[in-house]
Structures are given as structure tokens and as C-alpha cells.
Fold:
Amino acid sequence: MKILVTVKRIPDPDEPLKFSGGVLDTSAVKWVPNTFDEYAMETALRLAEHVGGSQRLAEVIVMSICPAGQRQHVTQFLAMGGDRAVVVDHDDRALDAQTVAEAIAAVWKRESCDLLIAGKLAQDMEGNEVAQRAAALLGLPQATFAATVAWDREAGSLTVGREVDDGVESKKIPLPAVVSVDLRVVLPHSVKNGATPDDHAYQEGPRLASLRGITMAKRKKVDVVSLADLGVEAKNTSPIVHAEPPPPRPPGQIVESVDELVEKLATEAKVL
Amino acid sequence: MSTVLFIVETHQGKAATASLHGITCAARVAAAHGAELALLVLGADDTAARQVAAEGYGAAKVLAGVHEALGTFTAEAYGDAIAEVARATGAIAVGATATSSSRDALPRAAAMLRAPLVSEVVAVQDAGLLRRPVAAGRALVDTKIEAAPYLFTVRASEFPAAEASAAAPVETVAVGDPDPRGAQVLGIERTESARPPLTEAKVIVSGGRGMGSGENFKHLEALADLLGAAVGASRAATDAGMVPADLQVGQTGKVVAPDLYIAVGISGAIQHLAGMKGSKVIVAINKDPEAPIFQVADYGLVAKWEDTLPRLTELVRARRTAEA
Ligand SMILES: Cc1cc2nc3c(=O)[nH]c(=O)nc-3n(C[C@H](O)[C@H](O)[C@H](O)COP(=O)(O)OP(=O)(O)OC[C@H]3O[C@@H](n4cnc5c(N)ncnc54)[C@H](O)[C@@H]3O)c2cc1C
Structure:
């Protein structure tokens, strides 16, 4: 079993955005991995490892499209426990989602993968489309917005609890397949692989890289390829031509008591 | 005349409220292009399509895409069908409201059409120029598209619901051979509630980690019921299992814009604000005067909920009794 995990670098979401000349200026941002991709990585590692045993159930390949010299996020994922990486050397800001999905599909084919796990969206551009596009290009079934993943190794299928608008949908997909993960996939009991005891409680959240992991990451194999190597044409059919901050909300007021609050909601705001 | 296609989701045979809001956006897209608006209803039969056509919603026609593989929603089969109809009709744009289903299926169709997709449109600036929020609502960006077709999803809270009009003609449209690719929907665990859905409620009472436990949410529910409100929550509250996940408001939960949003024990993280900043009136009750929620609140009350919710509920009940 080969699991492909994709990671996008995004501007640190805790830093303020910089607008200049009517566009977003990302020339001097601090790049960090997209949080949902960290969750995807955690999901892949939980599927691949046998806690309490020694056997490894899958190889985890990390993939990112980024300038080859700016791949700290890839190193971080290798330090978390990824086995090796493929870096597609290109400025991802200049590519549309279709190009990104084509590159992922090309790497999938080169590596003969069985499962793609991606974050459900990138926190910066919030497209929520790359995993689905890759699935369609590869003709594969998909389970998006995964909150739970259970792998049936005998049947070669996954049963995924998907967070949908009116509850949680349970969807069974045969491998090979594509999964995009939501927030709750990193709760302690969200991922089962049939080897790690079902009652094993993981620590909540994506794992931190250990010191040993960080040392080992430096020795792991990273293939650097170009879009041309993959036979993918770089395009951007949906460029952003203007960006601006949203209008600020008018300043509010602090009320001193519940009675004052209710009075103002009734007479001033007229919402009671 | 060129066509803008809008996919209407139906619920118990009728157009879903979320879709009605999306139709308004699609009508603006069509107007910007000088195109006509056609509604597409997919399913195992054409009953829902006929119901939608009877209400018209200002559309030139309603297309019924019928296939047995479309009886249960799967992104795989719906993606195939949407791509096929887009090709067959030569539509210049294909939209749907940004529900969990369209966010699942539309990107698949977009990939098959090699077409761009603009997610969560909040305004139509011009033909092929669509505005949407990014980075947890911290920026609004305009995306320029010259390709045809392009796809878009609509943020329902930003557009009024389309109203019924003269009936529209129904046409059957071929959907090709939609293929679920072995995927099987085993079931949906629905959150049953007598309260209005979050995305449709005029008033929302929302709780965060500060509520301490799921048990304590009953204080919010009592207030919500007096106000005819929906109950919402922050990620911290849903992750802790205090309430079901589908009550989460925010960047990765529901995006809401009610007349009144009451946030109790919620700090106001940027990801939470992304889902409720568009509310008309925001009330925050939080014991920490430094909590960022106060920066977006119209009315802030620095206090513990234990000391304030009982009185708030009592006063609202008194007003309701006086009205009755
Ligand atoms: C990728 C990503 C996506 C996310 N998406 C979302 C999202 O969609 N929605 C969302 O909500 N969050 C989201 N988050 C999480 C978000 O960053 C915050 O962690 C979360 O919103 C915090 O929830 P909270 O305000 O309930 O908890 P806290 O931040 O812990 O705040 C609790 C508040 O309660 C107050 N309080 C405590 N006791 C009392 C009392 N007795 N009475 C009154 N007040 C009290 C405290 O002063 C505090 O301000 C996301 C995070 C990430 C990384």
C-alpha cells in the first residue's frame, strides 16, 4: 500500500495579511504547512503504523508543489514520519487548481499509489477542490470531509465518516481512492487500520516531529521534478485580479448588565 | 443565446432553501453575460424537476437529468452527470449553492471539463468577474475568468432567496452514464432537531468552550427556544463533543448571517469569526474583557454565563409573555 499525502505551503494564518496595489502581497510572508494537510499527514501515519506491533502497513509519500528551495514544510512532514517525498519545483502561486490536480495525478501514476489523502481545503485560498479534481482525473472514488476513516485491509476498502451539512454520512469506497480530511479526523479515536488496537487513544491533533524524526528527515529521499517532467502544462485560468480587506464592522458598545442589553436589543437594534 | 446552468438541490421534492439563494446569484451571473438561466435538477425521476418548474424562479427553463444512479447522491455519479449536461448544453457557466454536496461534486465536474471553479461567490462584479472571501474572511478577492465553461459555488448567506414566478418549461436532458465507481453510501446519521437549521435561522444562540459541558448547553437551548433560534457552537465545543459537529459555525463549519447572533463563552478566533461576521447584530457574553469576540460585537457583556443567562432568559420570556 502506498499513500500519497499532499501539502501546500501557506502564509502563516496568524500573521496579518498585506495588501499592496490592490493585490495580496506574499513576497515576505512566513510559509507554514496548511493545517488541514497536517491532519491529512496524521491520518496517513495512523493508517500506516501498527501501534503495539512492528509491522508497517503502508509507505507514506509526501508531495508538494513549491519552489525547491522553500520546502521546509516538506521536511517537517518527513520529520513527522513520512517515508520520502516528491517536490514539484514550481511557484504554486502561479498555478490554478486544475494544474495542481494534474500534477498530483501524474505523481500518483509514477508512484503507482493506492490512496491519496489531502486536506479538505487550503486555509489561504479556501478552494476546496484539489482532492476532488485529482479523483476525477484519475477516475477514482472519493470521500471528502472525512472525520473518521476505517481501513478494511481484507476487503481493500475504506469506510469514511463524512461531515456533511445535516450530519455525518458513512461512505464506503474501494481502493484505490481519494480522501480529503476535515478537522475531527485528528481526535483520539478517528482512524482505525485493523492492526492498531481499536481502543487505542491517539493524542489529539497532528503529531509533532520528534528530535529523532528531525534528524532522520534530513536523510530521507526527496525527488525534485518539474511540471514538464510530469508532462503537465503550467496554467492559471482563474487569476486573482484584485484583493481588498473586508469593510470593518462599525464599533460596538459594552453594556453593563443583562437588563441594559435586553433594553438595547429591543429598542435600539430592534431584534427582540 | 448562451446559457448559465444552476443546479438546484431538492429536499422532499421541493427546491432546498439554500438553492433558492443561489438562484439569485446565478441570475446575476446570467444577466452579466446576457445569457439565459436554466435550472438543472438531477435525480432518479423527474418529480422534483417538475415541482421546481412549477415555481419557475425566473428561469427560462428547467432541465431534468434523470438516471437511476442519481437516486442517492454520490459525488462520483453527480460529477459525471453535471459534466455531461454542461457539455451537451454548451453552458458558459455552471453554478450551485456551496453545500456539502456541491463542494463534493462540482470540482469533479470541473476537472472533467478542464474548467476553473470559483468557490463561495459573494458578489458578481461583472461577466466572468466574481468576488469571494479568502483567508478566513480576511480578504475579498476578485477572480477573472475568460474560459468557458466555468463553474462557481455560491455563499447562500450573501444573496436573497429567489421567489416563485411563472412556471418554467421542463426539458429532459441526457446525463450520459453516471458511475459511482464502487462508492456506496451506507447511511447518514442526522442531527434531529425541532429548531430551525443554522443556515436559515433569523436568530442563533451559539456556545463555546466556556460553556464547560454539553449538559450546560441546555441553558442556551432554553434561550434559543424562546427566540425561535438555532443553536450553534465553536470548534472547541464541537470537538469536545458538547454538541454535534454539524452545529459548528466558522471557516470550516457553517457560514451564517442571521439578524441576531449571540455568542456565549466563545473567544472569537479568526476561524469562528469567518462564519458569523456577516450577522446583522452580534452579542457577545464572555468573562474575559480581552476576548477578540468583543471587537466584532455590537453589544458586549463582560460576565460569566452562569451569572447572566438565567436573567437573559427570564427577560426574554417576560417579553414573549407580554406579546402573547
Ligand atoms: C484549520 C482550522 C480551522 C478551524 N475552523 C474553525 C471553525 O470553523 N469554527 C470555530 O469556531 N473554530 C475553528 N477553529 C478553531 C479556532 O481557532 C478556535 O480554537 C476555536 O474557535 C475556539 O473555540 P472557543 O472560542 O469556544 O474556545 P476558547 O478559545 O477556549 O474560548 C473560550 C472562551 O470562553 C470564555 N469563558 C470561559 N468560561 C466562561 C464563563 N463561565 N462565562 C463566559 N465566558 C467564559 C473564555 O474567556 C474564552 O474567551 C479552527 C482552527 C483551525 C486550526
Observations:
- Residues 305-323 of chain B form the longest helix (19 residues).
- Residues A 35-36, 123, 183; B 208-210, 234-237, 248-253, 265-267, 269, 271-272, 275, 285-288, 291, 304-306 surround flavin-adenine dinucleotide (CB under 6 Å).
- The CA atoms of residues 4 and 55 of chain B lie 18 Å apart.
